[in-house]
Amino acid sequence: MNFIFLIIISFLFTQDNSFDKWNLEKLYSNQLKNKQINLQNHKNVNPINNPIILEEYIVGPGDEFFISFSVNDIVFSDYIVISQLNDIVIPGIGMINLEKLSLKESYDKIKSIFAKKYTDSNLDITLTNIRKFYINIFGTNSGPTKILTNPLDKVSDVYEKIIKQINIKEDYNLTYRNVVLKRKSNFYNIDLLEYKRLGLGNNPQLLEGDEIYLKNYTKYIDIYGGINSPGRYEYKKNERLADFIAVCGGFKNDIETEKFKISRFIKNKDLPSEITINNDSLDIFINEYDHIIIPEKDFSKKMVFINGEVKIPGYYFLEENMTVYELILKAGGYTDSADKNKIILNNDILGDIKDLELARINLIPPQNRSLSEISYIQSRSLIEKGSVISNNKEFTSEVLAYNLNIDDKVYIPVLISYVEVIGAIEYPGRYPYVDGQSIEDYIKNAGGKTNKSRGNIYIVNSFNQKIKVSSKFTEIYNGETIFVETKENFNTWNKLKESMSLIGQLATLIAVIQSASN
User: Fold this and answer.
1) Nearest-CA neighbor of 260 among 292, 234, 283, 235?
2) I need a labelling partner for 408 at 20 to 30 A (CA). Which of 89, 99, 160, 253 fits?
3) CB neighbourhood size of 368 (10 A)
4) How far is it, in rounded angstroms, from Cα 40 to Cα 335?
5) Exposed (0-12), middle (13-18) or buried (19+): which is 155, by Cβ within 10 Å?
6) Could you read off the pLDDT of 314-357 as tens digits, one per residue?
7) Which residues lie across from 466 on neighbouring strands?
């Protein structure tokens, strides 16, 4: 390719008035310039945290420019790095000092000097890479002593780099509200929490020579209740309560505006004193170790819930002395499908309380449990802790008169008319409940007794009681179960072996007792 290009140049020089020396140099220089500009456009640049603002970015040693121009017999397209003395040297122009200038001021100064020397020219200049430098870190027990940064990093960016390198066990309370930046002989207090939460306060970009001072804080403020971000916060001197609440995320929607409470230590007193203020007194200064409570209007803790066969199920405010029946009326009353003789009342708060007696019995091996303990386990298994279940008309009437408690849940079941017939029955199962129908009628409908029947008949009622049917007790109600007792089904030989084994054990025991007595 170069060989062909030289032939073309030789040919052009042999032609009269076709190209002069300047035009050839300009042609070659433009090709070189385009090649270098293309290279500049593909140069790798490190990702930056914050945008470059021409008026604010202060240039310094290590910043890199790409400068391109062509004038007279000078063609230049290349990278120029600012020296340690804040100078750049541009061929055909000379040395230019950029100390303490912003990026915009640097551009303007370079273009102004160039324009004074060359009246008819074009100059292109841009920043292609930003410098890096170290700043000193003081005050941590385990963190770094230096951090590599750049002029676009702010104090918050460097703080995040520090946090990633500290030992949390040694610097678990590292300050974030009282960070100190030293720049030359000046000190600046920086509240990174205020900047993060509200976008306010001082959080400057860093310069060479900056120093950051940290510490492990010991003074704090506690705030809880109707605050969007409750918890423990580092204490900041001369901060008003209103500003502190804003940093903590502000108030929730429903708070008691007249009952803010501050527990505060007063000089010469061992115990804190309680101060009550309202929403109009937030201009006061907070003290170290203040414990602030913002009361909430927590409606969820003053609610009851009803579901099932009522017209408007859902949550309702718990009024004073409200009964279960009054709650049903508030929910629009029963639906046409409701079983008015049944009701379930439950409470999750009571259900979450551990049954210590059950836990104690479960620790005892089954063979060592007393009859009372066995009975307790059986009884507890029949009903959920904190519940009331009624399948009986009379008991349901009593439950309807109960006063409700916070977080009570009421369930009205759907009406299902049935009687269940099980045991020594030809066709055991569920049969429609018919008012006035006798127990014998239900057994007959179920195909009658089988030859396995022992003859005894029982009713299992809504209280889970098993009552023997007799001439004195023949009533049956909706939802109850008829049980026709079956004959025992066992192997005669196995039964005989068990009996002989028991006799043998008794004989052995008698022999041991007689031997001991002799």
Assistant:
1) 292
2) 253
3) 7
4) 80
5) buried
6) 888 888 899 999 999 988 899 999 999 899 999 888 877 788 88
7) 460
* 3-class DSSP assignment, residue 459: strand
**Residue boundaries of the structural domains of the chain:** 2-129, 133-213, 220-297, 301-412, 419-486
Q: Which fold has domain 301-412?
A: Outer membrane lipoprotein wza fold like (3.10.560)
For domain 220-297, the CATH class is: alpha beta
- Pair 344, 395: CB distance under 8 Å: no
The whole-angstrom separation of Cα 437 and Cα 460 is 17
Question: How far is residue 13 CA from its own chain's centroid?
Answer: 79
Tokens of 401: 């008169």
Amino acid of residue 221: I
d(CA 199, CA 192): 9
Q: What is the CATH number of domain 133-213?
A: 3.10.560
DSSP reduced 3-state for 155: helix
Instruction: For domain 419-486, say whether CATH 3.40.50.720 is its number.
Output: no
Same fold? 220-297, 301-412 = yes
CA 176 to chain centroid: 22
Distance CA 111, CA 286 (A): 55
Query: What is the residue-wise DSSP string for 279-316?
Result: TT-TTSBP-TT-EEEE-B--GGGGEEEEEESBSS-EEE
Q: What is the DSSP string of 342-382?
A: -EEEEEHHHHTS--HHHHHHHTS-GGG--HHHHHHHHHHHT
> What is the gyration radius of the CA atoms in the chain, in angstroms?
46
- The band of 491, judged by pLDDT with boundaries at 50, 70 and 90, is low
- pLDDT tens-place string over residues 282-324: 999 999 999 999 988 765 567 889 999 998 888 888 888 999 9
